[in-house]
Each structure stands twice: as C-alpha cells, then as structure tokens.
Amino acid sequence: MESTGIVVAFYVLSALTVLSALSVFLMRNLVHAIVFLVMSFIGMAGLFVTLSADFIAVAQILIYAGAISVLLVFAVMLTPLASRNNGNSLYAGPGVLLGAAIAAIVVFTAVDVEWNELTGAALEERAFIDTIGTIGDQLLGQHILAFEVASVLLLFALLGAIVLVTDPGAVDEEDEAAEDAAGVTAEDAV
Question: Which domains does the chain possess?
Fold first, then answer.
C-alpha cells in the first residue's frame, strides 16, 4: 500500500483538477477560464508525480501549463473585446449530458472492474527507478522510426504554418523595393 501522504496528495490534486476543470466550463470571462485551465493542467502534473511518472509531469507543465496556456492568452487578447464573452450556447445542454454520461461510464468502470494488483516478485520485476532513462531507451531504440517520422511530420507542419501565414503580396513588394534600391527594373532583369 502507498504511503498516507501520497494518497492524501492524490485526493487533493484530484479535487483541484476536477474543480478547476468545472470552473473552466462555468466561467463567463475567458481570461479567468484560462487561469483555471492552467490550474487544471498543474493538478494533472501533480497527479502524474503521485503515479511516479516524473517525465510526463514535467512535460505536462512545460507543454500544457506553459506553452499552450501562453498561446491561449495571446489568442484571447488578440480577439475583439466583444467576442470574448463565454456566453451560453445552444450546445451547453447536450455537452453537459454527454459529460455526465462519460463520467458515469468512468465511475462504473472504476468501481465494477476487477483490477489486478501486482505484489511481491511481479511488482519488483516491473519496478524502475526513473522514467526518463526508460523513455529515452525506448524512443532511441525500439521506436526510433516512429520518433523520426514524428519529427519530420512536425517539421512539415512548421513549414506549412509558415506558408499559410506568409502574404504573397508582401513578398512581391519586398522584391520590388530591393530592385528599386539596386536601380534595376523588372524589364532590365529579364
């Protein structure tokens, strides 16, 4: 059995995460909703720490609580003030019903399923000291092809984003300005 501190931390972090997620749904102000979303992400990172998944906890804080939250703040701040309200929509009712149904399924599964618990030699066999070394060995060993494919896919996504936000008219104006500065016209260049 786990120590009492870990069990208490698990329940406290679970309550923080669930209440923060509910607050995101209930907030009218989008900036406040983002603050509660960050709290929910940090609570999830804490839950990962209680499960001895230190690498995923750090990734959760860096990627979600850090980068994604900053992206959301910029998106909210760049939208017009009139469209920032988090008013009711016609999908609120079906969303609540769907969320309640999913929560009921999760609770039923957690309570009703017989979960196998490892003890003794089986637990010692699967024990590991740190997850970072294990993840590194897996990523750069057995799963190297998937890791490289993901990196190339992310590179193409970055290039696609650059192409999408580049204004073709701005590039032509820059070329004309460079030609004017050099004293060369388009007809002379041909």
Answer: 1-81 (1.20.120.1200), 129-182 (no CATH)
